[in-house]
Write a structure and sequence with these properties.
With 414 residues, the chain is an alpha/beta fold. Helices cover 47% and strands 17% of the residues. It has 16 helices and 14 strands. Strands 3-4-14-9-10-13 form a six-stranded mixed β-sheet, sandwiched between helices. A four-stranded parallel β-sheet has the order 7-6-5-8, with helices on both faces. It has a two-stranded antiparallel sheet with strand order 1-2. Helix 5 links the parallel strand 5 and strand 6. It is globular. It starts with a strand and ends with a helix. The structure holds pyridoxal-5'-phosphate (PLP). Pyridoxal-5'-phosphate binds next to helix 5, helix 10 and helix 14.
């Protein structure tokens, strides 16, 4: 691979002014990769701070339901802050320390990556600014609350559609003026080189563990691995360790939203993505006939992105990873089923992988060994899930809380 290309995808389409910063970052990343003490420090941090290795749990009840096919769940939900995002931000944090920078910036949509970054910055003693669309600040108050309590400054972005892509533009604007002391912590395996490769490297810890664990528990490799795909970091994290094992079928699951035919989805590789260049790299994007970025939709905020990792685009076109899409409806049903069958509350993002596996399991050979990468836990989705399930008890609780605040505002009582 040259200059960050993966087949026809990737590259670094960046403004001239950022070239030197990217050169320094690439150099720091390459040096760290060659230095085994860096990876040892990383492993120690993830073990002592994030709770790794995460277990590979046999889903006994689901396995039984599907005629004894063995279904395992890789528990990234058990990471500190509740998702695989911790693997990436902690790795980048160690790199920031090596580069001698003392400030980090990030952009966030739903707030998960912002929370993970704010946590890392607190732990490593770094100043932290998070850019977030003003709309998202309104919609994701619990995450904004935690980011601020962790010491980060959350900047609402009021330009454009006031969502993630406007936050990305604002973060880049900050970086152009602050790159001497600031690192931009990208949250997924997208963007200009070296980010896709670097993020995939930090996430490879998932697959390395899963490979060892399945060999220890089953004495053989899995036949199928399912992972959800937003930008692609958790999927690449688990897939990489199995790329050479051609007997292992790798399945990336995108957001089917209201259904591929409705146009309201985020299925770039399983749907109708078109090759283009945006946000600093070349990949499949959802675009209209004029090449403008389309609006995307998913019940899971973390999958609602218009582009996808260039590494996954390459693996799709090379025939190594198969892509599928699960609809919002299927996802909520899968979430409920996993909770009831196994006592595990998956994130809405991760529930896409669960939904696709459940759809395909009846067709798989009876001796199939399946791993589902559970990228995160569902607590963060309580508002969305309660809405989707239309839970009356939850509605009552929110109304009572609102009344309590309204009374406090008018009477001044605390
Ligand atoms: C729990 C969870 N899973 C998956 C994703 C999607 O990201 P990626 O495709 O980079 O793993 C997100 C993004 O916010 C997330 O929070």
């Amino acid at each position: 691979m040259s200059q960050g290309y993966h087949g026809a995808f990737g590259g670094a389409f960046i403004p001239e002014i950022l070239r030197e910063t990217f050169r320094q970052l690439t150099e720091a990343y390459r040096t760290a990769r060659r230095d085994p003490t860096f990876w040892d420090d990383y492993l120690r941090l993830m073990e002592n701070y994030s709770g790794r290795p995460t277990p590979l749990t046999l889903a006994e009840n689901i396995s039984q339901e599907f005629g004894g096919r063995r279904v395992y769940i890789k528990r990234e939900d058990l990471n500190h802050t509740g998702a695989h995002k911790a693997n990436n931000v902690m790795g980048q944090g160690l790199l920031v320390k090596r580069m001698g920078k003392h400030r980090v910036i990030a952009e966030t949509g739903a707030g998960q990556h912002g929370m993970a970054t704010a946590t890392m910055a607190a732990r490593m003693g770094l100043e932290c600014v998070i850019y977030m669309g003003a709309e998202d600040v309104e919609r994701q108050r619990p995450n904004v609350f935690w980011m601020e309590q962790l010491g980060a400054r959350v900047v609402p972005v009021t330009s454009g559609s006031k969502t993630l892509k406007d936050a990305i533009n604002e973060a880049l604007r900050d970086w152009v003026g602050s790159m001497d002391d600031t690192h931009y912590v990208l949250g997924t395996a997208c963007g200009a080189h070296p980010f896709p490769e670097m993020v995939a490297w930090f996430q490879s810890i998932i697959g390395e563990e899963a490979r060892r664990q399945i060999l220890a528990q089953e004495g053989r490799l899995p036949t199928h691995i399912y992972a959800c795909v937003g930008g692609g970091s958790n999927a690449l994290g688990i897939f990489q360790a199995f790329l050479e094992d051609t007997g292992v079928e790798l399945v990336g699951v995108e957001a089917g939203g209201h259904g591929l035919a409705t146009g309201k989805h985020a299925a770039r590789l399983a749907g109708d993505g078109v090759i283009g260049v945006a946000h600093g790299y070349k990949t499949y994007f959802l675009q209209d006939a004029d090449g403008q970025m389309r609006d995307t939709h998913s019940v899971a905020a973390g999958l609602d992105y218009v582009g996808v990792s260039p590494i996954l685009s390459h693996l799709r076109d090379a025939g190594r990873v198969r892509f599928a899409a699960a609809t919002d409806h299927e996802v909520v049903a899968a979430l409920k089923r996993l909770m009831r069958a196994e006592g595990i509350i998956p994130a809405l993002e991760s529930s896409h992988a669960v939904a696709q596996a459940l759809k395909e399991l009846p067709r798989l050979p009876p001796d199939a060994v399946v791993i589902i990468n559970l990228s995160g836990r569902g607590d963060k989705d309580i508002f969305t899930v309660a809405d989707a399930i239309d839970d009356p008890g939850w509605r009552h609780f929110i109304r009572a809380k609102a009344t309590q605040y309204a009374n406090r505002d008018t009477t001044g009582a605390t």
